[in-house]
Amino acid sequence: MKILTVDVGTGTQDIYLYDSRLDIENGFKLVVPSPTMIVRKQLQEATLKREPVLLTGVLMGGGPSHWAAEDHLREGLPVYATPDAARSFNDDLDLVRQSGIKVVGEDEAQNLIHKTIHIELSDFNFSAIQESFRIYGVTLNDLSAVAVAVFDHGDSPPGYSDRQFRFDYLDNRIRAENRLSAFAYRSDEVPSIMTRLGAVVMSARNLGIPLVVMDTAPAAVLGATFDPKLMGQERLMVVNVGNFHTLAFRLGPDGIEGVFEHHTGLIDLAKLEHLLKSLASGTLNHVDVFDDHGHGALVYASQPLYIDEGNFGVAVTGPRRNMMRNSNLKPYFAVPFGDMMISGCFGLLAATGDIFPEYRDQIRESLRGAGGSGTPPWEIA
Length: 381
What we know:
six-stranded mixed beta sheet, single chain, alpha/beta, 16 strands, Rossmann fold, Nucleotidyltransferase, domain 5, 14 helices
């Protein structure tokens, strides 16, 4: 059995090919530029050439690509985008138009293709991944499933904060199904409000392979828990310090005990330590994070988690985890199967086993091959 897992971040997309015949450590992997970074470079090249740009495709992650589009416009150069592509920058197309991007219909886009530099937007490009593996003699013709993770704010109603909307979504999922893999879906079960997850489904619609899509932070945290040291813990805090977002889950016997999410660029070590201590004690309030321009916080269990200096209780993962290198909390730097960068892929693999019962036993056996001393309550159901 082979399962392709793809964790799409802001800086990189991390790709792991699971093969049940191999030890997890022997699976093939790639860490390459993220789709938004690829689009950013294409836009920058168009700016240097002073050429107009046409964006087509589907909604995808913004950030670097959005900033490059803004730079292109500031140079007085046109940016055209079809409606689906334009929503990569804002769900409200009127706001996209106000930014200077010209939203065009599909017919007009066809007329513009040969007059512009054409860039197709997508968070998931199976053909590119397939070709990358093919160069090294690895085929992807016999996959049992594909699993992809992206960060999704969701499609908030006009006038409603997208930060609050995302936290409403997190709260609803945890209350409905308290486990990290609750943030993963079969392709035909994605909520309509999760437009970026839905766009990944659209990008993979012709594969003819079962597809799982998942939020990136729960995937990374779930994957980190397969570090042997963490598998033996009954309760702990796992923080994912991403390039754009920092998210911490407090985990215990009944599942998720609390969570907060903030923007990485707005916090430093002192603030992060304060947030973690407050979440551990149960005193962190949603407004404390939201009013600081973060997403928010939720606490579900009253019993505190003791993470004072010298007491193991905080694990860290993510591409900006070095923020906690000198923390007084002395966090454990999780390395599931020896590779922190693939944590999200291991979380995706675990969630795939949760969603597809026919794959569950084999995936569970592989993931427990790390030699963990216990089965944490947040592992595969």
